[in-house]
Amino acid sequence: MRVAIAGAGAVGRSIAGELLENGHEVLLIDKAPTAISVERVPQAEWLLADACEITSLDEAALERCHVVIAATGDDKVNLVVSLLAKTEYGVPRVVARVNNPKNEWLFNESWGVDVAVSTPRLMSALVEEAVSVGDLVRLLRFSQGDANLVELTLPPESPLAGTRVGDVSWPEDTSLVTIIRGSRVLTPDTDDVLEAGDELLFVAAPAREEQLEELLSAR
């Protein structure tokens, strides 16, 4: 898979390193000469260019990319890169970094964003996830599909504790994707029995989140 990353700072380089370790082809783009540190990620391609310029993206052959990641520290740049990647080059998957939570509402399909990742929001969600039992925690928003990745830890008094996954009438537009039980990560099967303390990960439409929380919690 070919991935272009706009922004070769610490975040962009870290993402590049992970992707390269997983066998992907990575191109790092940055307009600042000081950011071009080939020796830090030698396996990647590097391009000194402005990712907001069509000529630069032509040089990067963005039409050959399967994924574009807008990872700069400037939300305006990330939005422009996302929009160009989707509308001008038809990139199938566009992931954008949100630096200021106040700008989250802009990072949607109108700007070409498939997945918006807000570091402050994610850190806050992880804190909530660590201390909340029985409360729904939103971890990630999928812009194009109008859905969220949400988590709920099943409380001991939940009426669904001890119930087979296949016997639960889940709300529409929700899908149980993973059960984390201690150190185990389980792919849900209809015969799996829910246990108190299970961390349940769902992809759910925002309109169904309250209904899902009511179903799983003890309230």
Automatic annotation (TrEMBL):
SUPFAM superfamilies given in the database record: NAD(P)-binding Rossmann-fold domains, TrkA C-terminal domain-like
Domain of life assignment: Bacteria
InterPro entries in the record: NAD(P)-bd_dom_sf, RCK_C, RCK_C_sf, RCK_N, Trk_Ktr_HKT_K-transport
Swiss-Prot/TrEMBL keywords: Ion transport, Transport
A matching Pfam family: TrkA_N
Keyword flag tRNA processing: no
Segments forming a coiled coil: none
RCK C-terminal domain sequence ranges: 137-218
Chain ranges of the RCK N-terminal domain: 1-117
Name of the protein: TrkA family potassium uptake protein
Organism: Streptomyces spirodelae
